[in-house]
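LAB NOTEBOOK - FOLDING QUEUE
OPERATOR: T.R.
BATCH SIZE: 2
PURPOSE: Compare the predicted structure-token outputs for two unrelated chains run back to back under identical settings.
PRIORITY: normal
REVIEWER: second-year student, initials M.K.

ITEM 1
FIELD SEQUENCE / FIELD STRUCTURE:
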Amino acid sequence: MICQTVDELAPFIGTRPACRALGAAPATIYRRRNPPPPRPARPRPRPARALTDAERAAVLAELCSERCADSAPAQVYATLLDEGRYLASERTMYRVLAAEHGRVRERRAQLEHPVYQAPELLAERPNEVWSWDITKLKGPAKWTYYYLYVILDVFSRYAVGWTIQHRETGPIAKALINQAVEQQRIDRDQLIVHADRGISMTSKPVAFLLSELGITRSHSRPYTSTDNPYSEAQFKTLKYRPGSTASSTLAASAASSSTTTTTTTDTPGSAS
């Protein structure tokens, strides 16, 4: 952009005054107008202390051996020194691996995470798909919190059960889900319960309970909060819309009660 402006001003005030006005170096302008010819590529000379082909082959064979295939060059280097052997420096091992088909990578055998499918759940009637989650509520004193468990019916967005506790555990979640299932009279193979991958959601008490009741489990993909949108949206309304009815009721219960509160409801028409 500056070079183009200098070229436009040069016929009127000259190149050097235009460069001074724009703060550009005249040498840069002249070099871009008449670029120097490219220098011929010269092969890099081989250092006198470079490894021979046989030495490089020995280093590569040791790095790719069965015992060292999953070890970093630093580990291989230290292991060879413990055995009284020195094939090459640690940096040279990296260069040998890089020259041989780009083998500089994570050499440890690590678990490959499977591809998680996005959950696709359809609720065509009440008590067909539930979504539940846990969130923190600020307590009356600094650094004190309450844990709010809420189970929502996806079809009606109705809270079929909720409880406020002093901690987050799997047995508490199990008791809440079991009570909500009894109140709503859920039959086997009728319900799908969706949640994220939190500690309580994937705990054994909850998993065993759902398996015993014939309820299908569904979980969000790892680190994907948008896979549980109904619970996340309900918590946002609760926390950032303090004038809402649910926010006022739950906040008052958390602030005034010294004991835990568990609430479930029988019909969507009643208030919790």
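ITEM 2
FIELD SEQUENCE / FIELD STRUCTURE:
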Amino acid sequence: MVRNLRWIGLALVVTLAVTAASAAAIPAGTRLEVRMGSSLSSGSAHIGDTFEGTLARDLVVNGKTIARSGATVHGKVTNAKSSGRLHAPGILTVRLTSVDTDSGTQSIHTSAVSRQGKSHTKSNATKIGGGAAAGAIIGAIAGGGKGAAIGTLAGGAAGTGVAAATGKQEAEIPAESVLSFTVTSGTTAAR
């Protein structure tokens, strides 16, 4: 009886090992092309927020397709910083956490994909400089040289106000955009 239990136990261990090995691991260095399921913005996203997407291409490991194009992937936001009004554009960073393969969901660790909003410099310079120029022209017409100087200051202040009111430059990842992630360490089947 004890001998039979040992054989049954050994058979069970071997079966579990073979089952675990048959779930193809995703090796480090594997690239995943992911189509985003929804848009993300540095203005509204928070660290830890999750998102879903789908594989844009089949996931092939050692010549074997382990996940088909369209399979669901899950990820999370690892950095989100909203844009300032006059400086510091928004920053958004995401990573993948799992992929649904033909043999089940596998946890993964990937490289980060980051996006940064546009620079404020050119936009702000245009708004502030344009306001100053317009103020100088209006001041010169209304009051000559002294009016031009006053108009320049007033126009520059108005331009700064416009830049502050409209100046947010958030980082965006649009829905349906395709991002490329690289697996950074081998994977295991998620439970």
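REVIEWER COMMENT (ITEM 2): The chain has two domains: 26-118+169-189, 121-166.
FOLLOW-UP: none requested
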